[in-house]
Design a protein that fits this description.
Length: 732
């Protein structure tokens, strides 16, 4: 018992799986050791990286962001001072508000970090001063706009005053000079003597007028120059000069005496003097504007200084954060170096162990025996099943060899069975071929029988139609002769007017009218019967030979022919005939005469359906919005050609759709259709190997779809239309 257990343990120790488990266990142990070393290293690096990411890097990012936003605020402040309109000022202010919100948010994030308190206080103080300066500029800008508006108004007023002074003083100067030289004061009055007009007083008066005109021009020029001054130092000399000129103006205005429009001149001079004096004068407004501009320049300069101090504080903050990051990076580098040495040692041990397993066990023991087994399997795959499979040992490879031996024995049995199955399969293939040939023979036989039936039907139809046509001709001829006799009877009655009583003459006239009406009905029904006979003859008639024809031309020609036929019968007939023909359709091998009859029948039915709907709507008083339309389209498909004939008539009732291709079925009145049109059309399309489909909505439309193959095909006699398509009410 003990000996058997020892033998089992020895066999178990020799198994490949046991040896592989031991080898894999050693490699897994080395791998776990490498993972532990890597884990510890990564934890150290991760801690260092977290310190950089959570402390140094956010501090640097916030510092750079604060520097960037402070630069944007400093750059935005001058844009406030140069804003030309309140709208532009509001736009710049909105940008500054958004930047300030971001700036305050960055300061809050920076405050939450571990930084020097004194450094942060300095940064916050500079930022608040910067925002305060910008706010001061924003507050003063409406005042600047108001001053600009007032100065512009004064500028316009000054131009108006200058114009008024020229209108008063220049004519006064001309009149005074003219009076001084000629003695004429008014045109039409005699001149005064020279001793009265050419005097010292008149000359002095002329000089005062001339001085007044020059001084007012100087005053307006000084005010105009003041409006354009950009330096406060230049404004005061201009104001002093204006005050000096105003004194001279007052002296000259008092010395000119009476002139035309003197009161008006005094008023204008008062307006001029008011523009240059007082708290609301031009000099005062310009002075306020220059002072405001000077304050804004001071605030902008202070902004730049605050931004420089803020940048210096931020730079110190960045330097501190950079030093912390460098320290953390150095610690990470040391941890990486230590981990790299340990991993190299473990990797070297793993390589040695792996090579030992590969060279000592896998290559020398396992692969050699597996190659023997593989070579034997290849020979078996090539058909060598006679040689026995022999592999020594008591491990998994030997078990595979025993299993392969069992497979070899079964394969010999299967090989014999496969031979029998192959013979049976060949016999089955031959039977399938014979069945296929038999089916083709049955189809050919059915086609021959159907052609013979059609030929016989054509002969019978032609014979019956011929025999019926003769009595129909007699009926037609005798009805016409009888109608003529009735007309002669009426003429005789007119000649014998005096020989008959009124009652007799009325009775005979009624009988003659009844005879005439009956003869018309006989003639009408005889013509209808003759039409049916004609259609029966057409069904039995040979229709020409197959040839290539342009399908689009065939469609358009016969559709127009159907349209003109309907128009000839009813002069009130209306129709919008549309075509959408695909030029890719090209030519098909068809029976052109037969296929033309198909298009005539289809379009003719559509014409009838749309015209009936038009008449119905006219009677109901609703025809204003309806236009009868027939649209014919063609398109090339993957396996042939598709023709669609669409009309907007009354459609087809559901209970009629299944019957429209039956011979002699029609929804038209008895004197307008025979019921053979669609039956003949269906036969012609089937003869071409095609089908007819229908899509209809009662009261709305009918669309007939004709599908023809691209190449001429023989159609089995028993084939039927793909769909029981129909036409609109009243269509054949």
């Amino acid at each position: 018992m003990l000996r058997d257990r020892l033998r089992a343990l020895a066999e178990y120790a020799l198994r490949i799986s046991t040896q592989m488990y031991v080898a894999i266990g050693v490699l897994v142990s080395l791998t776990v050791a490498a993972i532990v070393v890597s884990w510890l290293s990564f934890n150290s690096i991760e801690g260092t990286q977290d310190r950089v990411n959570t402390e140094s890097l956010p501090r640097i990012v916030s510092a750079f962001r604060i520097t960037e936003l402070s630069s944007q605020l400093v750059a935005a402040a001058p844009r406030l001072t140069v804003a030309a309109t309140p709208a532009e000022l509001n736009a710049v202010s909105a940008e500054i508000v958004a930047t300030q919100e971001d700036f305050r948010g960055e300061l809050q994030r920076l405050e939450q970090q571990d930084i020097d308190a004194g450094l942060f206080v300095a940064i916050r103080s500079n930022s608040r001063q910067l925002e305060s300066n910008i706010a001061q500029i924003e507050v003063e800008m409406p005042t600047s706009f108001a001053l600009d508006v007032e100065i512009e108004a004064l500028r316009v007023q000054l131009a108006e005053i200058s114009r008024k002074l020229d209108q008063i003083l220049l004519p006064a100067l001309d009149e005074q000079l003219f009076y001084l030289m000629t003695g004429y004061r008014q045109i039409g009055e005699p001149p005064v003597p020279r001793e009265r007009h050419f005097t010292e007083a008149e000359i002095i008066r002329y000089r005062h007028l001339l001085a007044l005109q020059a001084d007012t021009a100087i005053a307006t020029q000084l005010l105009s120059s003041a409006f354009g001054v950009s330096n406060a130092a230049l404004l005061e000399p201009l104001q002093e000069s204006f005050e000096s000129v105003t004194d001279r103006i007052e002296i000259s205005a008092g010395a000119i005496g009476l002139i035309a429009q003197r009161a008006y001149l005094v008023s204008v001079l008062a307006d001029l003097l008011e523009l240059g004096a007082g708290d609301e004068s031009g000099f005062s407004l310009v002075s306020q504007q220059l002072a405001l501009a000077e304050r804004q320049r001071g605030l902008l300069t202070q902004n730049r200084e605050q931004a420089a101090e803020l940048a210096a504080g931020v730079q110190e903050l960045i330097s501190t954060a950079q030093a912390d990051a460098d320290e953390a990076t150095a610690a990470s580098t040391d941890a990486i170096g230590t981990s790299r040495i340990l991993l190299l040692v473990i990797a070297g041990i793993s390589v040695v162990v792996g090579l030992s397993i590969i060279l000592g066990f896998v290559s020398r023991v396992l692969l050699r025996r597996l190659n023997q087994l593989s070579n034997r399997m290849r020979r078996m795959a090539d058909g060598d099943l006679e040689e026995e499979v022999v592999i020594s040992g008591r491990d998994e490879v030997s078990e595979m060899a025993h299993a392969l031996e069992v497979f070899r024995r079964h394969a010999l049995e299967v090989q014999r069975l496969n031979l029998v199955e192959k013979l049976a399969e060949e016999l089955g293939d031959k039977n399938s071929e014979l069945e296929q040939v038999l089916d083709e023979l049955h189809k050919a036989q059915d086609q021959i029988v159907m052609r013979e039936k059609l030929a016989a039907l054509g002969e019978v139809t032609a014979g019956v139609a011929h025999e019926i046509r003769n009595p129909l001709n007699f009926v037609k001829n005798f009805s016409e002769v009888s109608a003529e006799l009735v007309e002669e009877l009426e003429e005789v009655l007119e000649e014998a007017e005096g020989t008959l009583s009124d009652e007799q003459r009325g009775l005979i006239s009624d009988i003659a009218a009844d005879l005439t009406e009956n003869l018309e009905r006989i003639g009408s029904h005889g013509a209808r019967a003759n039409t049916i006979v004609h259609d029966m003859l057409m069904m039995s008639r040979e229709t020409g030979e197959w040839r290539l024809a342009d399908l689009n031309s065939l469609i358009e020609e016969h559709a127009k022919l159907a349209f003109h036929s309907a128009r000839a019968v009813d002069p009130d007939f209306q129709l919008n005939l549309e075509f959408d023909l695909d030029p890719e359709v090209g030519e098909l091998e068809v029976l052109p005469q037969d296929l033309g009859r198909v298009f005539i029948n289809m379009v003719g039915n559509s014409c009838h359906a749309t015209d009936e709907k038009r008449k119905r709507l006219v009677e109901a008083g609703e025809a204003s919005s309806y236009m009868p339309t027939v649209r014919t389209t063609s398109a090339r498909t993957a396996d042939g050609v598709e023709i669609r004939i669409h009309d907007n008539g009354d459609g087809i009732p559901p209970e009629v759709v299944d019957k429209i291709f039956n011979p002699f079925f029609t929804t038209k009145p008895t004197d307008q259709g025979t019921g053979l049109g669609l039956a003949i059309t269906n036969d012609i399309v089937r003869e071409h190997g095609g089908t007819i489909g229908v899509d209809t909505a009662p009261g709305e439309f009918t669309e007939m779809t004709i599908s023809l193959p691209a190449t001429r095909a023989e159609v089995p006699a028993e084939a039927t239309a793909a769909d029981p398509d129909g036409d609109a009410p009243g269509e054949e």
